[in-house]
Amino acid sequence: MDKLQISDGDVAYSEHRKRLKERFRKGALDGFYNYEVLELFLTYAVPKKDVKPLAGRLFDRFKGLRGVFDASVDELREVDGVTENAPF
Fold it and tell me: For 35-72, what is each residue's pLDDT tens digit?
């Protein structure tokens, strides 16, 4: 039987996701940067992927958290890495 291979990158983003969620549990959004808020939301919409680069692309395209939340689903889907479920 083949063993599951887990790369260092997979472990790193998995641990990063856990840290974001733990910080949220401990202090709501206190101390979060806006891009980290978006990253936290994306961890629930895009499972098992590193969402930090996607959060950065969304911030660049829409000029901040407010712009991302105000964007239409069609606009969001134009951003590389936005999956079918991510806008919802």
Answer: 889 998 888 888 778 888 999 999 999 999 999 999 99
By three-state DSSP, how is residue 1 classified? coil
34 domain-assigned:
yes
DSSP reduced 3-state for 23: helix
Distance from chain centroid for Cα 84:
14
Residue 58 lies in a domain: yes
Cβ atoms of residues 41 and 71 within 8 Å? no
> Is residue 9 domain-resident?
no
Residue 7 is predicted with a pLDDT of: 46
Please check whether residue 76 lies inside any domain of the structure. Answer: yes
Residue 16 token pair: 């990063």
User: Please, what sign has the CA dihedral across residues 76, 78, 79, 83?
Assistant: positive
